[in-house]
Amino acid sequence: MGEGAVIKQQVVGKPKAVQLDFMPFKFCPGCHESLVWRALGEVIDELDIQGKAIACLDIGCSGVLMVGLAVDGLHCLHGRSTAVAAGVKRVLPQAICFNIGGDGSLCAIGAGHMVNVMMRSDPITTIFLNNSGYGMTGGQVAPTSLIGLRTTTTPEGRDVQSTGFPLHLSEIAATMLGTAYVSRVSVHTPANYQKARKAIKTAFQKQMDGVGYSLVEILCACPPNWGLSPLAANSFVEEKLIGEFPLGEFKNVDKIEYTVDPEINRVGRVKRG
Amino acid sequence: MADRRLLSGNEAIGWGAILGECKAFFGYPITPQSEILEFLATELPKVGGVFLQTEDEIAAVSMVYGSSMTGTRTMSATSSPGISLMQETVSLMAYLKVPSVIVDVCRFGPGSGMAQTSQTDYRQVTKGGGHGGYRCIVLAPSSSQECCDLVQLALWLADRYQMTVYVLTDATIGQSCELVDLKTRDFGALPDKDWVIRGLDARGGVRQGFHQHMWDYVGYHQDMNEKYREIAENEIKYEAYCADDAEVILVAYGYVSRMAKGAVDLVREEGLKVGLLRLITLWPFPTNTLRELGSRARRVLVVEHSSGLLVEDVECALQGKVPVHLLGIWGTHRRDSSGIIYPERIVEEIKQMESVA
What distance in Å separates residue A81's CA from the closest CA in chain B? Predict the structure, then answer.
């Protein structure tokens, strides 16, 4: 920028909802989480919900992400962020409640809570980071690990005879009547980043409109645990991860349609006087 | 006129929750606790409260944590295996200093056990329950009236000390029906909840740390020890029955304390100087009172529906200065899980103990 130049319009900058000094920046080189962090910050700014957002952070690298987001938050135990967010939303419906967790949190130890918030249509939003393994504990096999992937607990590669097949949470979510919005995105190219941002925004909008539960699954690179360079890990997302976990919007409804059968409503142990 | 009703202990706990201004309840069905859940499913929404039956006790206590963090008076109720399932989050709430009330209508254990009465959870709840070396206040009602009153006290204590308070009952107390005066209890003013999480707007945009003690774990345990001392100084509750001249002191809580009271009445008719220390707070434990009563007594008999859990604390308090006897689960009238300890069996134990002396 030349001497004397005046900034007339700021077209890029740090989102207001992103706070860099709360804790040191802790992500590994090539990790995609900082992009998710930025996307979340941008969406929170755009929707102007920083003051009423409550984030429930799960255990794992996804929890590290949350400390840099300048919104109110709750520290949750491994897998429980979904239930905690649902509890907060029940007593504080005006808050925008969301939880962030990885594949270990949401597909393994906390999978039961995921199915149940979908079933109950709790109007919360889940940001689900899928990096095909356990990040923070050092690269163990996850329900989402690709078949054949060499993890520290499947040293010869994920073997379906022993550890089964990758779990597709978004596809499951799309089959549940209680979900309002389900999308799988990635952040490995600028174009995909923009789609991810849009998906997160739509998911929050569904909650704000009171439609029901919303889920955004974000495919993330994990270079250290994949044993790949940042660049190679980025390509691995494109070439392999998306192959197993196709991107797309699996569900997007503005209203969840259902009927109550009055005949059924007359049956049951509790008699109405 | 006073509102007087015939209530089971479980219903009385539900009423205590309503009168104690509990505004959210999350729980999962388990015998012998389910009536609490069913009562609040109907009654809590009527007073603007939130009720939810969750997918399990882990979700229930997770929601208790989330709800309580918003400043809402929140509780849950379960029975023994459910108490085990909740412990990870009870430990988290101890660390983060979150108020909560959890009712344990104790059933027979270990394992899934049986749904009938027992006191086999004493050690678990009085020693915190989960990992990490924390404590929880434990209140032990012995009647429907006390169920109603002590749940209100539990809600107050939880807010007062920012911690989990257990209300430990048993299947006998939970399922027996008695007359209850439905009264709102006032325990005094409470500190402001300046720690609540309700969005940045509610706090003028100021962000709050997730962990108060993230960089000072030593400080956490020192602070908590200070708080535990304060609780032990101020909150111990017990009932001493015919204890002033007692040469034999019975120690019991819950339904067993009712049986022990009956035993005291029976042996007093025969001129035996027997008294009862009925524990209302199991933690904090009335160490000094027991020590004083023990110093005037020849012996102490602990009666409890377990293999001997309360007896450990009694022995610890008495420091070997008075002989301590135990009538445990073998004192029940049947060997299956429907057995209970009757006054006559306690009388028999007292007489046998005294004749050997």
Answer: 8
Note whether B24 contacts A90, CB cutoff 8 Å: yes
* Residues B24, B112 share a domain: yes
φ, ψ at B223 (rounded to 5°): -60, -45
Residue B262: give the domain boundaries. Answer: 240-356
Claim to verify: residue B220 and residue B297 sit in the same structural domain: no
CATH number, domain of B198, equals 3.40.50.970
**Residue B280 and residue B208 share a domain:** no
* One domain, residues B29 and B154: yes
Whether the CA torsion B282, B288, B292, B298 is positive or negative: it is positive
Query: B245 and B226, same structural domain?
Result: no
Per-residue pLDDT at A272: 67
- What is the rounded distance in angstroms from the CA atom of residue A40 to the CA atom of residue A36? 6
Interface test with B, best of A80, A81, A119 (most B CBs within 10 A): A80
Instruction: Give me the residues of A, 60-119, that contact B with CB < 8 A.
Output: 67, 70-77, 80, 83-88, 90-92, 95-96, 112-113, 115-116
Whether residue B185 is found in the same domain as residue B304: no
Q: Whole-angstrom Cα distance, residue B110 to residue B106? A: 11
CATH topology of domain A33-265: Rossmann fold (3.40.50)
What is the value of pTM for the model shown?
0.96
Q: Which residues in chain B have Cβ-Cβ distances shorter than 8 Å to A112?
A: 55-56, 59
Contact between A34 and A71 under an 8 Å Cβ cutoff? The reply is: no
- pLDDT score of A273 more than 60: no
State which of B234, B266, B283 marks the end of a domain: B234
At residue B210, the pLDDT reads: 58
Would you say A185 and A218 are in contact if contact means Cβ atoms under 8 Å apart?
yes
Q: Where are the domains of chain A?
A: 33-265
Q: What is the pLDDT of residues B217-266, one digit of tens each?
A: 899 999 999 999 999 999 999 999 999 999 999 999 999 999 999 999 99
Chunked into runs of 10 residues, chain B (357 residues) has average pLDDT values of 92 98 98 97 98 98 98 98 98 96 96 92 96 97 98 98 98 97 97 93 79 76 97 98 97 98 97 97 98 96 98 98 97 94 98 84
B321–A contact, CB cutoff 8 A? no
Residue B53, burial from CB neighbour count under 10 angstroms (0-12, 13-18, 19+): middle
Nearest-by-Cβ selection for B89 from A54, A77, A85: A77
Choosing from B200, B234, B268, the residue where a domain stops is B234
Q: Copy the structure tokens of residue B213.
A: 């003690």
